Each structure stands twice: as structure tokens, then as C-alpha cells.
Amino acid sequence: QLQLVESGGGLVQPGGSLRLSCAASGFTLDNYAIGWFRQAPGKEREFVATITSSAGSTDYADSVKGRFTISRDNVKNMVYLQMNSLKPEDTAVYYCAASNTMSVVTTRSRYGYWGQGTQVTVSS
Asked: Phi and psi for 16 in degrees, rounded to 5?
């Protein structure tokens, strides 16, 4: 059974950092692009970051460029999202997702596998 599980969320003060992890089970991530999305209360789920299967390419939403970094470890079957300089507007449930493609994917509908999400709250 294909499964993605996020972890690492929590409460952090503005300007702080968190590192989210996405663990895959039931399949290997080697052939999948992995994306991070987030959904704030009352808002649509939005793209945050993505990384290709080979880790050769990444892409980020403008709102997180320069602050967030996506990376992956195919040996450990893990993907990470390092979040620095966090702002209150980053507060959301963060989801990782897998797309069976070799290319950069920023469109939510192209991701077929999703985790359950992890809550990130940025507040003083």
C-alpha cells in the first residue's frame, strides 16, 4: 500500500525554523517527483515546493523562495522541507505528495498520492 507520512510540524515563533519530513512506504520515491503543498483555514491548497525524482531540479512558490528548501534522500526514501524565517502567514497544514513523473510538477491535480498532513503554526 502506497503511503506518505509527514512529520516535523509544530508551533514556532516568527523568524524561527522547522524541518518537515515526508516518509514513503509501500513504494520507492526514485521515480516520483515530490511536492509540498499547504492549506490554511478557509483557503485553497496551494503549491509550496517541488523536487524532481533525480533531485536535479526544484521549484518554489514565490512566497517561500529564499526561505524554504526542498531536498530528498532516495536511499532513505525521504523528502524534506527546511523552512526558515517563518512568518505567521506560513501557518497551514502542510502536505507532501508524489507524482509519477520525471519533470517539475507544480499543479496539484498531477499529484496522485498524498499524505495526511502536518500542522505548522507560526505565532508569538
From this structure: -80, -175
